[in-house]
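Suppose a colleague, Dr. K., hands you the sequence of a protein chain of 914 amino acids and asks what its three-dimensional shape might be. Before reaching for any lab equipment, you can write down a predicted structure in token form. Begin with the sequence itself:
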Amino acid sequence: MPLALTLADLLDSLDSGEPLVMPSSRAARELRTAFDASRRALGLTAWEPAPVFSWQQWTASLWSDLVVAGVEIRLLLNAAQEHSLWREIVAEDRGHRTLGSPDSLAELAQSAWELAAAYSATAYLEQFFAGARWNALNPDSRIFSQWAAEFRKRCGDRCLLSTALLDDALAQHVVLGALPAPAALQLAGFGDLTPSREGLLTALRKRGTTVTKHDLTTSSASPPLRASVIAAHPHDELQLAARWVRGYLEEHRGSRPRVAILVPNLTEERAELDSVLREVLAPELQSIAADLSSAPWEISSTIPLASLAIISDALNLVQWTLGPLSIESAGTLLLSPYLGDRSQRDALAHFDAKTLRRQSLLRPEIDFPGVLRLLSSSDPHTPTPVAWLHNVNSLAQRAASVRVATYADWMEHIRVLLAAARWPGSESHTLTATEYEATRAWDGVLDLVATLDFSGRRVPFDNALEALRMQASRTLFTPPATRAPVQVMRVAEAEGCLFDAIVFLRSTDTNWPPPEHAHPLLPLALQRSLSMPGADAARAAQRARAFTTALLQRAATVLFTSSAADDDGKLRPSPLIAELGLTQLSPEQLCVTPPHRQRINLETVADDSPLPPLAHNTVAGGARVLQLQAACGFRAFAEFRLHAKELETIDLGFDAAESGRRLHGALQLFWKEVETQDALRSMPSDDRDRKIRKAVDLAMARHLHPHNAWDVSFITLQKERLTSLLQQWLDTELQRGPFKVRESEQMQPIHVGPLTLDVRFDRIDKVDDGFVLVDYKTGASGHPNQWKGPRPDDPQLPLYALPYEPHELKGLAFAKVRVGKMKWLGYQTEPGILPPSRVNEVVDLSATVEVWRATLTQLAQDFADGRANVAPRLYPRTCEHCPQRILCRLDPATLAPPEGAGEETGDEEEAWDE
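The predicted structure, expressed as tokens, is then:
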């Protein structure tokens, strides 16, 4: 019968110097930490480290002893080397091509081999696959049998040893006497041992080693509590557990208790659980800038090393030296806090926003030389040269001349490359504890990849980088421990650990016993015969039952929680938990006192202070100032007085605004040469097409610098699109009365009320005895109905009309330059100025302009006076895309849609026409 030891017993046993083996690295680390604390409590300043090992650490040390003694010459494969060997075998097997990648298949084969080795089944594989049993195997098992035989052969030929076979190899050396057997060996906290581990212990016992297995038990003097509780919903369950943990910590504050929260699906639950613990245990840490190192909980979750920003940036930078990256990834590297000099960060941010992401050419990717080229030709605000970029580029060019090299050489090149980029940050950047540990893990991965030279192959740089990226993704990184009183972990991580209290979350029948699956590459009959995980449901339940019983011994208080139902339906508690005969508590019994919330009395403050006057009557923004004031006074105030503007969206290639600018430029150049409608009408079609293409070529040449065939093809496509568009548009110009283009793209200040607005006239046409104002529109918006009312939707053309004498203005119109929808929409003083249409009204522009003058003057006065009431013109349409909602805090209940609001769809011209 194994002895049950408390933590004090374990610490006492370590004084004897006998090795103590624990089931996991976590359990061994926690016991070493407790041992060191006990030494400090005795007033010691130095002591021998505790001889506590995980099973993997212990067996690795035994193998090292054999190598040092010259007994063993075989190379013990690490994870990267073994994966490389399996991948080599899979890739060479051309007779069994599948849809899986060599890497994924190698990983699957390696896991099958490890499972077979753990159950001492590798020797049985050849027997099982031989003879009549071969025909009973599925195709996957047959393929694996051939891979396994080849793996064993190559290991033998190359003098290699798979880590999965280490227990068996050590047992053989113990039997032969090559490995001295210790007088005594203690194991603590283990559940069932695999056959390979039992084989090693059996060999040690036969050589005289006294092997003692200890169970663990709590030393708490508190009366034991074994209870279960069912909450209404999974979120309520988390809240209930967190509140109970907080109460437990407060009740046992003097004894510094250790609480474990066990979560079957920790990866999926992490975000919500962290939020609940923050809310209940430490609401003072709700701020996004709060330092979580002092949090009373610690979530023990491993994440791929490559997913950390500091490692991802290093990998992407190295990848960038081999070929182009996406614009987003390139910008991320330029702004990375782990690369370059912090003093240049603002200038690089300006370059990223104003140059890199605003290239008009359709470039989804950019290479390293391309960024250097942009930096050398950008505006004065950009740092040129950026030393670290040039240093990295020089090293990359030097490496490009090397065709193949060893893995170790390439890893050293990567170290030099990152050093040139000043990774992991300049002197002014202080690494966090997690970042520091990540850099140490990164060094370990580089060393691990360097060991792939065991194969004797020399590889190109991209192959070495691929191996590095794969190992960084497979390496699981654990953030440094904070020794918090509440430890959140997966269920399996609790093996071998002692706690004062344990909370087992989500203890439903779907989570406990944990779901297991048979391995697809091993014969099911073999797995069943050896009781491998996933092959026998009864055996899985037995293992879970034993684990649960051990949990009850390792803590004075054990609480199992579950939920009555989730969003998908009803849930059932685990039958294994029901077998324990626990005390069934209601949520009210578990947490009698509801969480304390302090009522905060609201204070009303009258905001009646006058706004400061405008700094200057000239306001940037043109007609948009009045447009936003008409739509909602608060939006105009926020955007032009508070400068609270939304971030601009950036599209690859030509966005709508860029396309519009190119069209404006082409039309300006065309009319500058042609000038009149008569000249257009009398022009042969070939001449017209030639002039259109000339204007398009000049307009498209502005600020575009093609560097490759991709750029040239994109520009050619845009030219063809714009040429076709203008050819169609010029036909509508012939449907108007005679005109001469007097001005295009003219800037002019307009005085309206107390404001001076700088505006740009798209075009001013001279007709018989006056002028026509033209505003190009390439989108769906633009209709004369948008000029009406005291709060017009689009006051741009009415604003343009104000400087003209009443008798001079003969018309104003939107020129809708859209494929398939070419039309003129506007007002005219007499028929024939604009093309015939039921939309082109004949109006008294003198009277209309005076109405507009009054309307726009009032809007300008309201803006200058700071009238910033939250009063959308047409709720909810006006507010649908407003970026100021976070500031205005609009309460929709205070607004009622005007009559007919549901019939008015706004900017679409078809709706206006109806």
